[in-house]
Write the C-alpha cells for this entry.
Amino acid sequence: MKPKYQIIIDDIKSNILSGTYKAGEQIPTELALQESYGVSRQTVRKAILELSNVGFLRSEKGSGTYVSSQYRSKTSGAAAKKTIGVITTYISDYIFPSIIRGIESRLNEDNYSLLLASTNNDIMQEKKALEMMLSYGVDGLIIEPTRSNVYNPNIAYYLSFKEREVPFTMINAYYEELEVPFFCLDDVQSSYLATRELIAKGHTRIGIIAKMDDLQGKYRMKGYIKALGEAKLRFHPEQVLSFDTETKPDLSVNLEEFLVDNRETLTALVCYNDEVGLEVVHACRRLGISIPDELSIIGQDNSYIAKNANIMLTTLTHPQEQMGRDAADWVIKYLQGKRDLPSSIYYQPELIEGETVKAIETRRL
C-alpha cells in the first residue's frame, strides 16, 4: 500500500500533467489538502516539498503553493538530441516488434532518441505512460491507442500535449473524440477481402471472431458485414463470437463452445487476427475438426506467429515496419517545421494464400 504522502504526490502530479492544474495556478491550501486526504499537516508538507524538488510546484511565503513548469525543462534541456516517445499496447509479441523496429530505424537516421512504454491495453497503464512522457518532456509522441473503441478517460493528457504544441500521431487505431493524424491499416477492407475470398470459394455460412474494445475490431466487423451484404448472404448473430481485453484469457474455452454449437452449419471463419486464427486451429484439433476440410479459417495481419506456425495460415497483409517508419517520419518532419503533412494514411491489405481455406462444391444450409 502506498504511503499517504505518495498518494497526494501522485494525485497532484496527475492534475498538473492532465492540465487540471495549469502552470502558475495556485493549488489547494495545506489545510484543504489535509481535510481532503485525512492526513496531518506534516504529510501534506512532505508531498509538497517532494513535488517542489522535482519542479512541479513552487511555494511563495505568505501566499501559497503554485504550479511550476520547471519540470518540463529538467530532462529535455539536458538531452543532446530530441526524444520521441512511443506508447504501444504491447512490445515483445505479435506485430509490435516490427512496428517498433520501423520507428527506431527512422529516428536513428536523424539522430533522435526513443523513449518506449507499453500499456498492455490497460487504461491505467496508459495513464502512467502518458504521465511519464509529459514529465520527461518528449519532443513528439507516437501512440497506439488503448481500448480505442471505448471511452478513454485519459483524453485530457492528449489535450495537454496539444496545448504544449507537442506533435503526436497514432498508429493502428485512433481516438475518434480527437482530431489527430493517424496511420492505420484499412481494417474494413481487410475483413471485407477475407470474407469475400471465402464467399468466392463457395462458403455461405461464414462466422467471425471479433475483438470489440479496439477500433480495429469494430472496423473488421464492418468489413465482414459489408461482404455478406454484397453477396446477399444472411448475417447470423449466433455465428459471431466477440471478446475484449478482459475476456481474452477465456477465449480458448469460449471458442470450443462456439465451435461445438455451430459445428453442423459453420463452414468458415474470419478471425480478428492471426493470433485468434491459430487459437481456432488449436481448438479445432482438440475437437477433431479438420482444417480446411471441415472448417476454413482466415487470419489477419501476416504476423510472424502465422509464418512460424506448423500450418500456413491464410491471412491478410499489415504494413508493420513501414507503418512505424512512416509515423516516425511524420513526427520528425513536423518538428522540422513542415505542416503540409497527411492527416491520415490507410494502408491497403492484400490476401496471402495459405493452407487453411478450401473451396466447397455444395453449400451446407
Q: What stands out?
A: Confidence is low (pLDDT under 50) at residues 74-79. DSSP finds 13 helices and 14 strands in the chain. The two ends are 58 Å apart (CA to CA). The first strand starts at residue 57 and ends at 60.
